[in-house]
Amino acid sequence: DIKEQETSENLSRKVENQNEKSHDHVKITFEEGQLSYLGADVDHLPKEIIKNYSKITSQLDLSFNKLRSLSGVEHFTLLKELVLDNNELSDNISFPPLTDLHTLTLNKNMFSDLHGLLEKLIQNYPNLTYLSLLGNKACPNELSASDKDDEDYQRYRYYVLYKLPGLKFLDSTPVIAKEVGEA
């Protein structure tokens, strides 16, 4: 009996140590409405995060994961900013409607269909003012393809601004009146 108890205690300690180690590199940080869950290599949003933070988060950063879906994000009804850089999001994604969202960054994902992506954003994010798509095939510049140049990128900017005329920033660059007129 004593041996079994010692073995059980040792096993419990090992599990606790493994849990501590596994969470050392992945930290959930929450401060003043801003939640960051970076580098966890998850392909979906964990239920615990949805349960504990969805009703109090206005800024959500899920960068450097392996997200392929935004399932669960629809519970974050107060979101104003959503950062999804460096994930595995692609053209088949469904974007949850979030009417207060004004900032969306999708840098370095797998989007290639610009028209389809913009239609989804128009439908689900009517108040979007900041959008960044750098590092996707849908955004033609040196980050996404070596055969693209400044003219390709400018045409892309005009098209995005034509479809989303309320943008104030596109790809970390302020939108200027001349561009909106040209678009």
TrEMBL record:
State the residue spans of region: Disordered: 1-23
**Xref: InterPro entries:** LRMDA, LRR_dom_sf
Protein name as annotated: Leucine-rich melanocyte differentiation-associated protein
Q: Which gene name does the record give?
A: ORF116201
